[in-house]
Every structure is written in structure tokens, then in C-alpha cells.
Amino acid sequence: MASPSQSARFGAFEGVFTPTLLTILGVIMYLREGWVVGHVGLAGAWGMLGLASGITVCTALSLSSIATNVRLGAGGPFAVITRSLGLELGGSIGIPLYLSQALAVAMYIFGLREGWCWIFPDHPAWLVDGIAFAVVLGLGAASASLAFRVQFVVMAVIFVSLLAVFGTWAVEPVAPASIEWWRGEEALRDAGVSFWAVFAVFFPAATGILAGANMSGELRDPRRSIPVGTLSATALATVIYAALAFWLATTATGDELRSSYTVMIDHSLFAPLVLAGLLGATFSSALTSLVGAPRILRALAQHGVAPGAGWLVKDGDGEPRRGMLVTAGVVILALSVRDLNAIAPLITLFFLITYAMINIVVLLEQRLAVVSFRPRLRLPWVVPLLGALGCIFAMFVVNPTFSLVAVAVVLGVYGVLMRRKLRSNVDDVRSGLFLMVAEWAARRSSSLPRGQARAWKANLLVPLADPLEVRGLFELIVDLARPYGSITLLGLQHEGAGERLHDRVTELANDFTDAGVHTTATVLEAEHEGRAVVHAMQTLREAFLRPNILFVTPRMAMPHDELAAPIRHAAHERMAVVVTSLHPTAGLGRRRHINVWIRPQEGGWNLQEGLRMTNTHLMVLVAYLLQRSWEAEVVFVCAVPPSEHEEAQRYLEELVDVARIPEAEVRVLASPFPDCLAEAPDADLSIFGLPDEGELGFTDAMIAQVGSSCVFVRDSGEEDALA
């Protein structure tokens, strides 16, 4: 890898201004601007230029604002997007952008070949393509410095060609009276085009402002060079296009402009100079793209985004020679197609998506009020907003079908990169974006009534003195909390025990997160574990995502009398309790059968009254969550005297119906409760209500009697199984 001193060697003029200007002053200027003026008139052409320039100027300002805030790394737009929106989104833009740059080389060579064959029609097209690419590749592979020195010559040729064009005013008087300012919709319909169709032809001329930014990793001072070079090149190019539109409108008739692509050549003082400018413009655009594309590829490889990343980053002299080889292969494949007209719109659209994302980055950084976003060039928020909206508008004007294809490609690459779980050492603002949304949601939520039974989900507080205490319960905890619940791990250690528990609890939290559950973890030093859990419950009482279930197991290292204190206190914090005790042999078994034990209704078999007086709400919700995760059979069981059999049967059937537990069964056992424990259907898990006193000494006896793992629950009063 080259050292910074080796690679950072270009200034604003040679590194940014020149490649940006030469990319904008291309084939469209020489061969299509007259066609545009002929169809929409001078006022229409200026309006079109203003719209296109407005989009690119907003984007150039956004890019410049970012460049004055941080030193951009290699990769230009890829680095910009990655720094703000993450490696996956940066890569999803960077990979198509790289391919667009590589394919653009072939497209510019085809343009050069057309101009060459116009002069020498007998020369074979394939030979012209091959020689042109060999020259471009040789210059690009030699070094960027040599390529830029060649571009100085090309820029001189282009400016001389423009003198040959505007020099006609010195020998022929300007005739403003002959200008066709505007052509109406009817005239456009007669010509078989529309205003926006003409705009779609013209807009690619405005793409090119990233040519210098692609060299960001090799600029001496990108904070200064990118804004100065990009904005000055964009401004000068806009003036040239506007002046040429006026020259075309005053030099040729409308019919001639509409029927001939070579008006500038035909009406210039010296046609060979203009033709040389055309060939130079296409040549320089191809060279600029070939120099920039491998640098984007190398930046992608440095972050592990590009395939073969390890091989691509091994260049030792600062020049991305291996990236140049890959890019050359892409260009050769494209040249072998012989016609890129079918995918040329896609190239423009990938550039537009990149422009839109640059504007969105600035807009997000501004609206999030990120303290690290302190650019020297501060913009009103409306500038990036207009730039982003303008890019989206231009995409669907240029080609709606290809716009959808381009978006689909970006989303597809994003999905692939998300599955690869890329790791980046670059901070981004995604967390700030989600935090802003969360803060807004928290403020809105605080103004609403507490409870929100319809939006209930299991947010578990899991105290533990040793992660081994929940090892056998890992899947059960995940099944209760997934997909929208959360887990808060509360590690409890004695003072002076060191950091080992913290590391183990953090590792366990990462395991829960990898299993798809949002998990946070903390460790408290406490002499009395029970009091520490109570203090944690009190502290978390007003948290936005506060735990609503205390999840404990009798097999914790904490003594039962210590554990009983937080269980009893949970009711004061309106927190439910789930006590889980695993069968020592069977564990959770096959996770296929769940029994829910409903206590007899001593005050009568009225469903609403029974739900209010018992823990049935949470029992039903726990059964539903586990049934959904396990695809298990659920049986509601009740032990009653024979005289209450029919009422209990009707009660359970109504409960299953209104609670909407799919395919649940009911079983009423007409025997004393202790006898029914052994008579009940076989189960992998049995769910009971938890006695109010919170004592846990009975759990082992219950496991032995039912022959399965048991969950004992107590409502908080905020659950509603009927919601």
C-alpha cells in the first residue's frame, strides 16, 4: 500500500478541475446540443440547462460540504456514503458505480470511433476500437500523473476548438432577430418528441461532477481541492453550454439544427479543429473513467466489499494496477458487445442514484444535528433536498424502466452485502438516525396512556449471577422475546470480583442478539443480589423500552429468600413475573406439547371476572408465543369437582375462542388437583399461575408430579389476552 506521501500528490487543478471539466464537455456538447436547441428553442434549451445544472450544482455543493468536513478516503462517492450510511449501502452504490465507470470507457471509445470513422470511413471499426483502447489503457496504467498531463493537452485542444466555433462571430454579425426562442408542444409532437424526451437526451451532459472526487484518495488536500475544483468546473461548463446554445440559435436555422448533428463542425471557422476537439473530448472522458474506476474498485476491496478483495489491495506502488487489469477485462467484454446503446441509460442512472445519495447524506447529517458534522461550507437544508428530489425526478424522466432496474440492482447488492455481515472500522450516522426516530417515538409514547395492551410484547429482565444459569433456557428466552420483544441481562457480582462476569454477560448478550432479539446487558456489584434486582427494576421503571417481565429460575445461585424479594416487589413496578424451572432429565423435551393449567373459578365461571382475578392473561400470552415459535399443540387443562365439569368445559372453550389461540384443545379433569397433575396429557412444558407470596420451594415438587419443565407466571395487570 502506498503511503500517504506517495499517493496524495494531486492538487485542485490537475486532480479535480481538469477531469471534471473534460468529462462534462463531451460528446453531447459537440453533437447533441444543436439538436436540443432546434427542438425546444433557445429559451427551452437554457431552461433545460438550468434544470440540469441546478441538480448537479446542488450535488456538487453537497459533495463540497462533505469534503470540507472530513478528509475523504479513497473511493470518492463510495467513501462519502459509507461514512454516513454504512458499508452495506456504500457498497450497494459503489459496486454499480464502478461498473458504470468501466462501461463508460467502452461507451466513450465507441463515440471516438464514430468520429474517427467519419474522417476515415475505410478504417475497420474493430481496429479503431482496439487501438483507441490500447492507447487509453497504456496511459492509464502508466500512472495517473501521465494521464493528467495528457488531459492538459486535450483540454487545450477543446478550448481551441471552442475558439474556432465562437470565432465566427468575428466574421459574421450576430442576428438575434432570427432566434427561435420557443417551440410549442404541438411542434414537438409533430417532430415525434416531447420536452422531457429532449431533456433525457441532454441530461447525460450534466453527469461528470464526480470525476475528480473519484481521485479523493490521491489528492494533497481533498477538503480544498474537491469543492474548488468541482464547483469551478461545473460553473465554467455551464457558461460554455449556455454560450454555445446562443451561438447555435444564431448561426443555424431550426430545421438545420434538428436534422444535422454536425452543425458545430459545419459552421465553425476551421472544421478540423472542432473535429479534433470532439475526438479529444471522447478520448479524455474514456481516460478519466479508466483512471477513476480502478480506484473505486480498490476502495471497495479495502473494505472487503469487492470479490477478490485480498488480491486487489496488494498493489505496492500506489497505482491500482490489479484493479486496472480487472477494469480492462470489463471494458474488453463491453467492447465485444459492439453496441452499448441498450445499457447506456443504466450508466447515467447509476450516476444519478449516486448523486441522490450524496445529497441525502448531507440532508441527514444536517437534520440529525450530528456534532461531528461541522463543514466549512455550510448549506441551507433545502439545497441537498432539492438535489435529491431533482436526481430522483431526472431518473424517471430519463428512463422509467431502467430507473426501476437500477434501483433493483442497488437493492439486490445491498441485500447480498447485508447477508455477508461486513465489519467496518468507520463510524456512520445510522445509529443517530434510528436514535432520532426512537427519541421521537419515545416522546410520542410518553404522551399516550400507559399499558397499550394491543401493542404488548415480552421485554424480559433476566438477572443472573452466572451465565450458566440460563444456558439451558437460552432457546426458551429467545422464543418468548422474538421477534419484537427485548432482553435486558442484569449481571450480579460481589464487589471486587473483577471483569470476568462482565465479559461473559456481554458475550451472552451478543449470542441473544445474533439469535434475532434486541439485547442489552449491564453488571451490578452488590452484596445483596435481591436488593440489586429491586433497585434495577426501580431504575428501569420509566425507561422507554422498560422490561415488563422479570424472568428468573429457581436454580439461580441466588438464595430463594433473596430471589423472593424482587418477585414480590415486581407487582409494585407493574412488572409481570415468569419463573421457569427445567425438568432435570427431559429439559424442554421435543417442544411439541404445552399444557396451560387454569385454576377453578371460586366466584363462578364468568370469564371476565375470572380473567381479572387470576394470572390467565400472561399464561395465555406465553402459551401463544411459544406455540408460534415451536408450532406446538396447546391444551388448556382445569381440575374441578364433577359438579362443575360442564361449566368449566364451557369456560375453557370460551377462553380459547376469545383469546384466539389457534387449534387449542381443552381438557377438564374431574379429580382433585394433585391427582390431576399425573392424569393430564403428556407435555413438554406446563404453565401455571404463580402464588402471590412468591416462594419457590414448591417448584421441584411440581416438576416431579407433572413430569415436565414448568413455567409459573404472574400478571402485572397490563397484559390482556383478549386484546
Strand content: 5-15%
Query: How much is the radius of gyration in Å?
Result: 36 Å
- Please list the strands of the largest sheet in the order they lie side by side: 3-2-1-4-5-10-9-6-7-8
Mean pLDDT: 81
Number of distinct beta strands:
10
* Straight-line distance between termini: 62 Å
Structural class: alpha/beta
Can you give the helix content as a percent range?
55-70%
**CATH class category of the largest domain:** Mainly Alpha
Give me the CATH architecture of the largest domain, please.
Up-down Bundle
Can you characterise this structure?
This protein is of the alpha/beta class and 723 residues long. The chain folds into 3 domains: 4-420, Up-down Bundle (Amino acid/polyamine transporter I); 451-576, HUPs (Rossmann fold, 3-Layer(aba) Sandwich); 582-723, HUPs (Rossmann fold). It contains 29 helices and 10 strands. Helix 22 (500-514) links the parallel strand 2 and strand 3 (518-525). The chain starts with a helix and ends in a 9-residue tail after the last strand. Mean pLDDT is 81; it is low at 1-8.
Layout of helices and strands:
Blueprint (H helix, E strand, L loop, with lengths): L3 H4 L4 H13 L2 H41 L9 H9 L1 H33 L5 H18 L1 H23 L1 H4 L13 H6 L4 H8 L19 H30 L2 H6 L3 H5 L3 H32 L6 H4 L8 H17 L6 H24 L14 H17 L1 H21 L9 H17 L12 E6 L9 H8 L4 E8 L6 H15 L3 E8 L3 H11 L9 E4 L7 H10 L6 E6 L11 E5 L9 H7 L2 H15 L2 E7 L5 H15 L5 E5 L3 H7 L5 E5 L9 H8 L2 E6 L9
Parallel strand pairs: 1-2, 1-4, 2-3, 4-5, 6-7, 6-9, 7-8, 9-10
Antiparallel strand pairs: 5-10
